[in-house]
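Input record, target 12 of the design panel.
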């Protein structure tokens, strides 16, 4: 149900400062062996195996109801598997106490923000960087939200919220990103913008796993 994408990368000079450098051979960002998840007698995952190499983009493809979101929630540390082994960013899910322990950039299918905050305020709130003002501005420009950075997020379109969510996932500069249906419910233009950002993350040397039911 998984597939590696060899996407063209988008040129962007500033992304170099977010890069992770040369990837190390033999290290896998995600290792999943025989992962299972049961919900009151219903088996949502029936023995999933997955290995994700660093510095690549992986599409986790399947129809609605196939268990993609269930798997993504486990990988993001939001749910515990019933059985199986799951190592994310070098850490065994079973040994973590909080999703933040995994140090990943996570984007849910429908990201939620404080509607009364602006995009700039949202990213500044999420940042732990002393030089966050410059970093936030760079991310706003990268996501194409600079001109709308002082507007309240409650007035954003679905596509703008998705781009803000990707920017929020990058704010602490993780090596691994896990996105749940990042382009769902978007028009072709919005989908293209989201895929451009994902391609740019690869250029930075990041690893991206995203679920989707859209094959094109």
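The sequence produced for target 12 reads:
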């Amino acid at each position: 149900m998984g597939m590696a994408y060899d996407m063209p990368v988008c040129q962007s000079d500033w992304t170099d400062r977010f890069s992770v450098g040369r990837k190390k051979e033999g290290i896998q960002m995600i290792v999943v062996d025989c992962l299972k998840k049961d919900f009151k007698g219903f088996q949502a995952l029936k023995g999933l195996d997955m290995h994700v190499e660093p510095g690549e983009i992986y599409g986790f493809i399947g129809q609605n109801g196939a268990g993609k979101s269930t798997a993504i929630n486990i990988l993001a540390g939001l749910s515990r598997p019933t059985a199986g082994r799951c190592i994310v960013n070098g850490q065994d899910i079973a040994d973590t106490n909080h999703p933040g322990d995994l140090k990943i950039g996570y984007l849910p299918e429908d990201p939620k923000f404080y509607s009364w905050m602006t995009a700039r305020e949202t990213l500044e709130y999420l940042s732990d960087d002393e030089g966050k003002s410059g970093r936030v501005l760079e991310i706003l420009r990268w996501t194409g939200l600079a001109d709308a950075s002082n507007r309240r997020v409650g007035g954003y379109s679905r596509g703008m919220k998705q781009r803000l969510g990707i920017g929020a996932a990058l704010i602490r500069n993780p090596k691994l990103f896990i996105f749940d249906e990042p382009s769902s419910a978007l028009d072709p233009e919005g989908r293209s913008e989201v895929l451009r950002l994902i391609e740019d993350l690869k250029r930075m040397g990041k690893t991206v796993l995203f679920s989707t039911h859209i094959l094109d």
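Helices lie at 68-75, 119-126, 132-142, 158-170, 188-203.
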